[in-house]
Amino acid sequence: MLIALSTLAGGAVAASVLLVMTNGQDDRHLRVADTNFVPTYQPAPSSSTVPSTTTPSASPGPSSTTPSAPPSPPSSKTSTPKPPPSTTSSSSKPPPSTIAQQILALVNQQRATAGCGALTEDSRLGTAAQKFSEDMADRDYFSHTTPDGVTFDQRIKAAGYPSPAAENIAKGSTTAAQTMTLWMNSDGHRRNILNCSYKKLGVGLDKSGWYWVQDFGF
């Protein structure tokens, strides 16, 4: 199984990770490249493995109930018993029902732990992220810059969002939990997720190649 990650912040590559899984082990190379220093390769210990994740169970859709028939008028001999009280809790919240909502919930859990404010979903960032995941799948590439030379900030602005901040991408993982684990185990991706100055998030996924995209906005 081949899993790849890449992250971008402020127009410069922040980190990229390539994991090649062989017999339960992986060879990992992390490259960090900021504008302040020259990129260098820093191999992680060969014994490290990506923490296992469990596939989240499918989220139930909105529950529906069928109204019960009205009780028959009481007869002179018998009375209609009252229905039992409902046991459904009105305070319980349903789990996230879409991949984007799952990623957003997992991101905000991590941000809350780090003392950052929660991100909110933005449809323009979501559009940019989804179109980009589909484009990578359709044209079989994995990069923050398209084969035509279009950068992440240009794509976000073209979708109508004026303040692009950063981008994380991943390929090969098949659940939101697994993808978030990979991103959080990579320094560059983690810094994007835990950047307290970011306010908005859009998520894209193309399942034909399992291309994941996070687009962040100020």
Summarize the structure.
With 218 residues, this protein is an alpha+beta fold.
Q: Mind explaining what this structure looks like?
A:
The chain has 218 residues and is of the alpha+beta class. Helix content is 26%, strand content 25%. The protein has 5 helices and 8 strands, in the order ββββαβααβααββ. The protein has helices at 99-114, 123-139, 152-158, 176-184, 187-193, and strands at residues 2-9, 12-22, 25-32, 40-43, 120-121, 164-171, 200-206, 211-217. Strands 4-3-2-1-6-8-7-5 form an 8-stranded mixed beta sheet, with helices on both faces. The longest helix has 17 residues, at 123-139. Residues 10-71 and 83-92 have low confidence and may be disordered.
**Counting H and I runs of at least 4 residues, what is the number of helices?**
5
Helical proportion?
Answer: 25-40%
Q: Mean pLDDT across all residues, rounded?
A: 72
What is the alpha-carbon Rg in Å? 23 Å
Order of helices and strands: EEEEHEHHEHHEE
Query: Tally of extended strands?
Result: 8
What would you call the structural class?
alpha+beta
How far from one another are the termini? Answer: 35 Å
Strand content: 25-35%
Largest sheet: 8 strands, mixed
Low-confidence segments = 10-71, 83-92
Walk across the major sheet and give the strand order: 4-3-2-1-6-8-7-5
The geometry reads as globular
